[in-house]
C-alpha cells in the first residue's frame, strides 16, 4: 500500500464492530471442540438475532420441509458451519450502514453482493472446487466487496473520483482504487475481515477475489471471481462497474469450465437471488 496506508488502516478501524453475540459465535466455531449446545446458549441470549436466524432457516433459501422452532433444532438439522454462516451473513448486512457520503447505492450493492453469494454457492455445489464449502462460498460472495463500503464511508470524495474514472471508461474500479488509494477494495475488505476475526479462509477469499493470476490460488477466490463476473454479465445489482473479465486459462482448468459453461450449468439465478433476499428482510 502507498503512503495512504495509515489513512486506510484508520478507516478500517472506524468500521462498526459485530454485535457481541456474533463475536462469540465466531470465537466458538473457530474451536474444533465447539459443541452445538455451546453455540445455542450464545445465540438464544439475543432474542432479536434468534428470530432473524429462524426466519432464514425456515425460508425457501434453506428449503427445509419441516418447520424449525428453536436454535437447537436448527443446529441439529443444519450443522454448526451452516448456522455460523447464517449468523455471519445476517450480522454483516445488519452492521454496515445503509447510507454514505459517496452516494454509493447500498441497495444496488447488496443486490449485487447477494447475487454473487448465490452464484458462488451454486458453483460450490457443482463441486468444481471440492475443497470449498458452499456455505463458506455464500459468505465470501456476500462480503467480497465490503472494502468498497469502507471507501464510501470514510473516503467518500476519493471514492466518487474512482467511480467517475470507471464511468468515463478510463479503467476498472480496482485499478482506479489502486491509483487513488494505493490499495483496492479486496485489500481493504480483507483487513476489515481480519478486524472482525473472520475465519482465515474467508479473509483469503475476499483478498483474492480480484487476483485470478495469483501463483497460489485459493478455491474460494476462484469461485467468487467467477461468480462476480457472471453477476456483472447478468447485471444483478450494481457495485460500481459492469466490466466483465474472462476466466484466465489456469482458472478455467482448475474449475474445468469457462464462464459460459458455468453459466449454462447454473440454475435460474433470478430465483436463487429472490430466495437469498431473506437476509435483507429477516
What does it look like?
By secondary structure, the chain is an all-alpha fold. 65% of the residues lie in helices and 0% in strands. It has helices at 5-14, 20-29, 36-44, 47-57, 71-78, 80-95, 106-125, 134-143, 146-154, 156-167, 173-181, 185-195, 200-207, 219-233, 249-255, 259-265, 269-276, 278-281. Helix 4 (47-57) packs across helix 6 (80-95) and helix 9 crosses helix 10 (156-167). The radius of gyration is 18 Å and the shape is globular.
Major sheet details: none
Mean pLDDT across residues: 90
Poorly predicted parts: none
How far apart are the first and last residues' alpha carbons, in Å? 38 Å
Rg over CA atoms, rounded to whole Å, is 18 Å
**Number of helices, counting only DSSP H or I runs of 4 residues or more:** 18
Which series of helices and strands comes N to C? HHHHHHHHHHHHHHHHHH
Number of strands: 0
Q: Strand-residue fraction?
A: under 5%
The portion of residues assigned to helices is 55-70%
Q: What is the SS-derived class?
A: mainly alpha
Shape: globular
